[in-house]
């Protein structure tokens, strides 16, 4: 069960992405270079919340499929739970996610790495953000089943800090520390979030750093959103194997997603 939880939370912070025909910028280049990643993404300190395009607003039915998984430093170094995640390869998993206007005013420029001039007036006045509690709860239930999750709580003073509690006093604390976005065109949006994770279970503590580089592509004919998402796992400096990896990820997961808007 411990390995299952570790492997799952490698992926739980997945907030969707899309492969597009034309990408411009370091994040787009990074996606093109998968799986040849030997450094961390270019991000700014994460303050405020991640602001999405207006067309992401609403509740979506997501079909997520793990298409590829790579351990760049194997066989010398493999993260716990990596092999256990092979059970999810090519297995579609469905859940709902929600994006909605922020309950409080959010600075849309923060963490935007220089692409903020592409923001519309509506994105500034009515920024669309992820409902992190709703999304975390639905993703956890889809992967772990009913009854395992106790609660998902986002710090009311900091949308980047989230605490997820399970039974038997197990919990995951996640803090988004870095962020960047790109807007190649009106139908595409790419984002990166880097989070520090602490998983506590029966007196044991497991730490790592998780990057989720995601891109969205809106299909003009159907209004659906296709997504290509890569989650990278890095060892924390507290890990005894840290200096064997440094900035190279010890695990990479690539997902294909399809988001269909739910009638409300």
Q: Based on the structure, what is the oligomeric state of the protein chains?
A: single chain
Structural class: mainly beta
Q: Assess the beta-strand content as a share of residues.
A: 35-45%
Radius of gyration: 17 Å
Q: Please give the number of β-strands.
A: 11
Low-confidence stretches: 1-23, 108-118
Tell me, rounded to a whole number, the average pLDDT: 84
Spell the H/E element sequence. Answer: HHEEEHEHEEEEEEHE
- Global outline: globular
Q: Tell me the span between the first and last alpha carbons.
A: 37 Å
Could you describe the largest sheet, including whether it forms a barrel? 11 strands, antiparallel
Helix content: 10-25%
Contiguous helical run count: 5
Please summarize what this structure is:
This protein has 5 helices and 11 strands; from the N terminus they run ααβββαβαββββββαβ. The protein is mainly beta and 264 residues long. Strands 1, 2, 3, 4, 5, 6, 7, 8, 9, 10 and 11 form an 11-stranded antiparallel β-sheet that branches.
């Amino acid at each position: 069960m411990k390995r299952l939880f570790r492997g799952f939370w490698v992926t739980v912070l997945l907030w969707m992405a899309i492969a597009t025909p034309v990408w411009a910028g370091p994040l787009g280049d990074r996606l093109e270079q998968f799986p040849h990643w030997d450094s961390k993404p270019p991000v700014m300190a994460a303050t405020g919340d991640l602001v999405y395009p207006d067309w992401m607003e609403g509740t979506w039915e997501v079909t997520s499929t793990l298409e590829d998984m790579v351990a760049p430093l194997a066989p010398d170094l493999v993260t716990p739970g990596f092999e256990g995640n092979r059970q999810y390869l090519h297995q579609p998993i469905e859940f709902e996610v929600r994006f909605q206007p922020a309950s409080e005013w959010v600075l849309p420029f923060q963490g935007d790495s220089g692409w903020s001039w592409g923001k519309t007036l509506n994105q500034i006045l009515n920024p669309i953000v992820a409902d992190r509690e709703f999304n975390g709860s639905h993703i956890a239930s889809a992967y772990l089943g009913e009854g395992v999750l106790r609660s998902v709580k986002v710090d009311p003073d900091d949308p980047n800090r989230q605490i997820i509690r399970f039974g038997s006093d197990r919990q995951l604390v996640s803090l988004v520390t870095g962020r960047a976005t790109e807007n190649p065109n009106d139908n595409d949006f790419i984002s990166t979030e880097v989070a520090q994770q602490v998983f506590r279970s029966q007196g044991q503590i497991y730490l790592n750093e998780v990057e989720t580089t995601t891109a969205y592509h809106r299909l003009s004919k159907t209004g659906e959103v296709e997504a290509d998402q890569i989650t990278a796992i890095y060892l924390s400096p507290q890990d005894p194997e840290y200096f064997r990896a440094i900035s190279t990820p010890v695990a990479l997961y690539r997902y294909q997603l399809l988001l269909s808007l739910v009638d409300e």
